[in-house]
Specification:
Mean pLDDT: 96
Helix content: 25-40%
Number of helices: 14
Bound molecules: pyridoxal-5'-phosphate
Distance between the termini: 24 Å
Strand order of the largest sheet: 2-8-7-6-5-3-4
Shape: globular
């Protein structure tokens, strides 16, 4: 049977338009974008074009875009860069219990340097309450970091409301939008953010490139010191190759129309599973405030990894991991209060531009057959 890829939240294929934008920089256009002679001209132009394309997607100015090596670096720059720049004002950071490790791990690191971090709880659908954010703010709060959409269950956070609260209190507001860019609107002004993370390989650009949006008046200490690249916010000669790929992917991501088809397929998968398996399946995440491509399903009383192992050729992710012979639920499902008998059977299906109706139908039929046979 042909392999089926339903793990677009893990990574996406490089779009042919992104690959085409990168091609010249594998060949003759090798110049350093910071040089001032003929050999650098194509690189300088391409870097500026790519920066403008990222900015166009986010609705910001080109000089507010800092290229990074990906989502993890952008998150680290946002958190550590703010802490190092504003440490004299306070040491309190507010985030949520359902963030990606690329937020949680830097927070733990900053705690070792004297930061105090509030990890806000979420409700059963994975949403944080904006009032809880308001209540957590103190005179020492320097940063609020709340992800736009969750990578495991797809739940979308009420960023605009949280952004308004952050502004009211004069606190810098960051969002990890690695999963939402290209799937739902991500205008930085509408979301009310000061800092926003994007990751290339989640939006049909290559791995190893991302960007941090930095609102013009926001102070940020660089994590990599050197020459004055990226407006002094990230030293190192830029990879024009990767930036060109990211820029082209951002141009494509402006058109969200293809997501309606993806959402219809996602909904069909859920509907077929419900019809065939009834209350043996449970939806994880918010029924409406959810990424259009993401379906996290709990097969109650089953083990997600075992189901996937028997769905030969289907690429998807589980919501639990096996450690020393014990099944451990992901911290996201734990924070949402998903009971262990449901959480251990969680599988995340994440669809994308290349997903077909035939693939969805085949997966739902195979799942039903497998689970019916298992009793
Ligand atoms: C929500 C979220 N943030 C950050 C990252 C990290 O991005 P990168 O792999 O580009 O470092 C990921 C990737 O899984 C993610 O899903």
């Amino acid at each position: 049977m042909a392999p089926i890829y339903l793990d677009y939240n893990a990574s996406t294929p490089i779009d042919p338009a992104a690959a085409a934008a990168m091609r010249p920089f594998l060949d003759e256009a090798f110049g350093n974008p910071s040089s001032a002679h003929w050999a650098s001209a194509p690189a300088t132009l391409a870097l500026a074009k790519a920066r403008g394309e990222v900015a166009a997607l986010l609705g910001c100015a080109a000089d507010e875009v800092v290229f990074t090596s990906g989502g993890s670096e952008a998150n680290n720059l946002a958190l550590k860069g703010t802490f190092f720049a504003l440490g004299h004002k306070g040491e309190h950071i507010i985030t949520t219990a359902v963030e990606h490790p690329a937020i949680l791990a830097p927070c733990r690191f900053l705690e070792r340097l004297g930061a105090t971090v509030t990890y806000l709880p979420v409700d059963g659908t994975g949403r944080v309450d904006p009032d809880a954010v308001r209540r957590a703010i103190t005179l020492r709060t320097i940063l609020i970091s709340v992800m736009h959409a969750n990578n495991e269950v797809g739940t979308i956070q009420p960023l605009a409301e949280i952004g308004a609260i952050a502004r009211e209190h004069g606190v810098v507001f960051h969002s990890d939008a690695a999963q939402s860019v290209g799937k739902i609107p991500t205008s930085v002004d509408e979301l009310g953010v000061d800092l926003l993370t994007i990751a290339g390989h989640k939006l049909y650009a290559p791995k190893g490139v991302g960007a941090l949006y930095v609102r013009r008046d926001v102070k940020l200490e660089s994590l990599i010191h050197g020459a004055g690249h990226e407006g002094g916010r990230r030293a190192g000669t830029e990879s024009v190759l990767l930036a060109a790929g990211l820029g082209a992917a951002c141009m494509l991501a402006q058109n969200l129309a293809p997501m309606s088809r993806v959402q219809a397929l996602r909904d069909r998968l859920w509907q077929e599973l419900q019809e065939q398996l009834g209350d043996r399946v449970r939806l994880n995440g918010h029924p409406e405030w959810r990424l259009p491509n993401t379906l996290s399903v709990s097969f109650v009383g089953r083990v997600g990894a075992e189901i996937l192992a028997r769905l030969d050729g289907v690429a998807a992710s589980t919501g639990s991991a096996c450690h020393a012979g014990r099944i451990e639920l992901s911290s996201v499902l734990v924070a949402m209060g998903v009971p262990p008998e449901a959480g251990m059977g969680a599988i995340r299906f994440s669809l994308g531009r290349r997903t077909t109706a035939g693939e969805i139908h085949s997966v739902s039929k195979r799942l039903s057959r497998l689970l019916a046979a298992a009793g």
